[in-house]
From TrEMBL:
Localization terms from the record: Cell membrane
Keyword Mitochondrion: no
Alphabetical list of CDD domains matching this protein: HisKA
Top-rank EC class of the record's enzyme: transferase
Keywords: ATP-binding, Cell membrane, Kinase, Membrane, Nucleotide-binding, Phosphoprotein, Transferase, Two-component regulatory system
Example of a GO cellular component annotation carried by this entry: plasma membrane
PANTHER family found in the cross-reference section: PHOSPHATE REGULON SENSOR PROTEIN PHOR
Protein name (database record): histidine kinase
Species of the source: Donghicola tyrosinivorans
Length: 341
């Protein structure tokens, strides 16, 4: 095959590809494949450009028997580890065509799914193990001990509630993800909504010896899903009460004439606590599923590790932005920016 035709052939392909002619020379390579091989010496033996042993072997064997081969390769491309599905196919007596399909995203999604299943299994296994242990004890030595039985039943109820919260949050996360591409259309009065949330959480704050202060600047409304927004601010304000130390929680609502994040008029809702703050190293990962700064404390407080992941997806559905700011020793501010109605 003529080298100019080989170059035109691989350039026409939508995938990274190169062609090795019958003399085992690199006869053509497109721009995307050049990024993968790094060194592309046209009209020279392909071994001078192809350095991956498994790919070298596949090309060599294809020349020998003419059979198509598929392999999965992990390669370093521009300082990134990429996963490719590679096809090595004979083009009759003309040579061998090699093409690459980027599978990095699919691999990442698969790993996220595996991690998610592992995390869910772990989160359910811990309370289940405790429940089974208490049941076994209640059937045996503690059968006739009223005090022990009552104490164990109280713990069992707490563990069962923990599993119930986890299942509830998993279902909620699934629903939110399914609806993420469907824009909400309800007119929501944010002052009224936040007032409802703050009143419902007032007993929690009182039990902790703190209070929730709400400051709304006039009539503020957004186009959204009232139930989902209620879930967002219940989560953020409750977290501020539980983890924000002994200081009060401030909820401030401000109208912004224009915000670049939403490309127009916006509503800024900031939830600020005066607790110990968050180490900056944790902030980028706070919205990951099951990520916790202090796993033991979070579980003691009834957290499932899914709250901020749900918040992130709901805010994305509303074309809004979540911003987290924190200073160690001074507290944290979780801000939600939503397009104004």
């Amino acid at each position: 095959m003529d080298s100019s035709f080989a170059s035109q052939l691989v350039e026409a392909l939508p995938l990274p590809a190169f062609f090795v002619d019958a003399n085992q020379r690199l006869a053509g390579i497109n721009a995307d494949a050049t990024k993968i091989l790094v060194t592309a010496l046209l009209e020279r033996n392909y071994l001078m450009s192809v350095r991956h042993p498994a790919l070298q072997s596949a090309i060599e064997t294809c020349f020998q028997d003419g059979n198509k081969r598929s392999l999965r390769l992990t390669m370093n491309v521009q300082s990134l580890e990429m996963v490719y599905g590679v096809t090595v196919a004979s083009v009759g007596s003309s040579g061998v065509l090699v093409s690459f399909m980027d599978q990095s995203s699919a691999e990442e999604i698969g790993q996220m799914r595996r991690d998610f299943v592992a995390n869910v299994s772990h989160e359910l296994k811990t309370p289940l193990t405790a429940l089974l242990g208490f049941i076994e004890t209640l059937r045996g030595p503690a059968r006739n001990d009223d005090k022990v039985r009552d104490r164990f039943l109280e713990i069992m109820e707490r563990e069962a509630s923990r599993m119930n919260r986890l299942v509830r949050d998993l279902l909620s996360l699934s629903r939110v993800e399914a609806e993420e591409r469907i824009p909400p259309a309800e007119h929501v009065d944010m002052g009224q909504l936040l007032n409802t949330v703050c009143n419902s959480l007032a007993p929690v704050a009182e039990n902790k010896g703190t209070s929730i202060r709400l400051d709304v600047a006039g009539d503020v409304a957004v186009t959204g899903d009232r139930d989902q927004l209620m879930q967002v601010f219940t989560n953020l304000i409750e977290n501020a009460v539980k983890y924000g130390g002994d200081g009060d929680v401030d909820v401030q609502v401000t109208m912004l004439p224009r915000d670049p994040a939403v490309r127009g008029a916006a509503v800024l809702i900031a939830v600020k606590d005066h607790g110990q703050g968050i180490d900056p190293i944790h902030i980028p990962r706070l919205t990951e599923r099951f990520y916790r700064i202090d796993s033991h404390r979070s579980r003691e407080m009834g957290g499932t590790g899914l709250g901020l992941a749900i918040v992130k997806h709901i805010v994305n559905r509303h074309r809004g932005r979540l911003r987290i700011e924190s200073v160690l020793g001074q507290g944290s501010t979780f801000s939600i920016i939503l397009p104004a109605a």
